[in-house]
Amino acid sequence: MKTDREQAVFEAGIKLGALYHQWVGTPISRKSASSVESAIEKAVILQPFVEEITVHLNRSLMTENTFGYSELSGLMFEVEIITRVGFSYCRGHLALKNGYPLMRIVECNEISGVSHH
């Protein structure tokens, strides 16, 4: 049987993986980056178990092609997500590390339930 902590870790990982593969290749420019960041945040926060998400896209990697835009690549992402299942919280991160867009679980915490007397 899975624990709330295991489910929170799973949810963070699956959300980061889905986000990455859903948005890579999206046409983007430095002018549109903030609206794309917001769109990603607004889409992911709707999903079950997501408490918070912040998305930052590295604009310095956005080089325009001959048509005036670039494509969103995994190297551009810096994402932090917090998932909660029951009293278990998990913080996941997607960011460039050693030239690779690495997804990892940063921390997990369990908050003791409130006892009612």
Q: Explain this structure to me?
A:
The protein is an alpha+beta fold and 117 residues long. It is 27% helix and 36% strand. It contains two helices and six strands; from the N terminus they run H-E-H-E-E-E-E-E. The strands form two sheets. Strands 2-4-5-6 form a four-stranded antiparallel beta sheet.
Layout: helices, strands, pairs:
Elements: H1 4-23, E1 27-28, H2 33-44, E2 50-57, E3 70-71, E4 77-85, E5 88-97, E6 100-110
Antiparallel strand pairs: 1-3, 2-4, 4-5, 5-6
The major beta sheet can be summarized as: 4 strands, antiparallel
Order of helices and strands: HEHEEEEE
Helix content: 25-40%
CATH class: Alpha Beta
What do the pLDDT scores average to? 94
Number of domains: 1
Beta-strand residue fraction: 35-45%
Q: pLDDT below 50 for ≥5 consecutive residues: which ranges?
A: none
List keywords for this structure.
elongated; 6 strands; 117 residues; Pantoate--beta-alanine Ligase, Chain: A,domain 2; four-stranded antiparallel beta sheet; alpha+beta; 2 helices
State the gist of this model.
The protein is an alpha+beta fold and 117 residues long. The chain is built from two helices and six strands.
